[in-house]
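Dear colleagues,

As part of the handover before I leave the project, I'm documenting each prediction I ran so the next person doesn't have to rerun anything. This entry is a single chain, and its sequence is reproduced below.
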Amino acid sequence: MKKKSAKLRPDVAEVAFRVMQEAIGESPKTLPPSERTEKNPIAVKRGRKGGTEGGAARARSMSKAKRTASAKKAAKARWGEAEP
């Protein structure tokens, strides 16, 4: 299994330098993560692949009784107890 690389945090001095550059107008302001729109296309592709394969593989490995129980549990969690 391929190991994930550790996310490196920027050095405190680098962050201070970037903030100073933004404050005096020498570099554009950095957008917060909630306002960024670009996504890593490789990560999007991996997520899509897992989403399309995962549920079907899980359903194939379960018996009919377990699938039924799982579906009932999901419906109950989604819509709550049904009124009699």
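Residues 42-78 form one domain. The chain has three helices and no strands.

All the best with the project,
I.
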